[in-house]
Amino acid sequence: MMLAGKIAFVTGGTGGIGTAICERFEAEGATVIAADLADKGGAERFHHFDVTDEAGIIATFDQLANEHERLDILVNAAGIEIEETIENTTLEQWNRIFAINVTGMFLTSKYALPLLRKSSGASVINFGSYDGYIADPGLAAYCATKGAVHALTRAMACDHGPEGIRVNAICPGYVDTPMLQSFFEGEGSGGDGGTIETLQQAVRDVHPMRTYGTPQDIANLVNWLASDEARYAAGQLWVIDGGLSAQVQQMKL
Ligand SMILES: NC(=O)c1ccc[n+]([C@@H]2O[C@H](COP(=O)([O-])OP(=O)(O)OC[C@H]3O[C@@H](n4cnc5c(N)ncnc54)[C@H](O)[C@@H]3O)[C@@H](O)[C@H]2O)c1
After folding, report:
1. Cβ atoms within 10 A of the Cβ of 182, count?
2. Which of 74, 107, 159, 219 has the highest Cβ tally under 10 A?
3. Which residues does the annotation mark as catalytic?
4. What separation in Å is there between the alpha carbon of 249 and the centre of ligand 1?
5. How does pLDDT run across 153-169, given as a tens digit for each residue?
């Protein structure tokens, strides 16, 4: 087992990707806290947690310090998406997505650090996106938050590497979760009169691997980054997207 005896805290832990991570971590022998706003499965590992609530975050890590004394793995996976251009994004929406995707990561990491320092080799995994590298049309604020996550990841890795804390970001492409399904159902995604099925097929076809990812595909990489096998992996942005961002768009001549 790759994570035997480790203690892991996963924000967004009841989401599509978060659930797969928690299940994989447990299968690898970790004790897991699935920290999320929503208790979707009634799992014992669930802990109610709002990444925008500073007092609640402090209270959670105080409680964790009493129960576990240290933290080995922090996964910052809580996130939301807003499907709009900047012109159609309200200031309230802009502030909300930054509060969750960026400030939430800052606050959670800030208050987790004292416990992470007590680990004999801690790993922090932030959720960026291939949208932090290249842009999907109609996702302006989301792309901006993920670019910020990538920069924050590098900065955290530099600051806390000397303390034995590795920090990396995972940058998924299309992964089959409720977030992706709401993108398929959303306004900006179709617009050509096609069905969700034709849209899903079109998205698969544009990938070199001719498919989009599963939450388990992402959990496999997260699991490795969380483990001691990845002891020399720090400060990097790990793109996992079926090759999507490697190719230029094909012209139909
Ligand atoms: N699904 C994809 O295609 C994809 C692609 C690239 C990046 N990502 C990123 O991966 C991460 C996980 O996404 P997912 O696809 O599992 O989405 P998801 O919507 O299934 O899960 C996100 C989770 O975050 C939680 N959350 C939202 N606001 C919160 C808050 N204030 N406090 C605590 N939890 C909160 C939600 O309740 C939800 O469980 C996100 O950061 C997302 O941006 C996803």
Report:
1. 13
2. 74
3. 142
4. 27
5. 999 999 999 999 999 99
Distances in Å between the Cα of 86 and the Cα atoms of 37, 67, 81, 133 are 27, 44, 13, 18
Phi, psi dihedral angles at 36 (to 5 degrees): -160, 160
More confident residue, 151 or 251: 151
Averaged pLDDT for residues 136-163: 97
Quick check: CB of 217 below 6 Å from ligand 1? no
Residue nearest to atom 2 of ligand 1 (CA): 175
Name which of 15, 215, 179, 11 is nearest 81 in CA terms.
179
List the chain domain ranges.
Answer: 7-174+214-240
Mutate to test the pocket of ligand 1, among 39, 177, 216 (most ligand atoms within 8 A of CB): 177
The highest-level CATH class for domain 7-174+214-240 is alpha beta
18 lines ligand 1 (CB under 6 A): yes
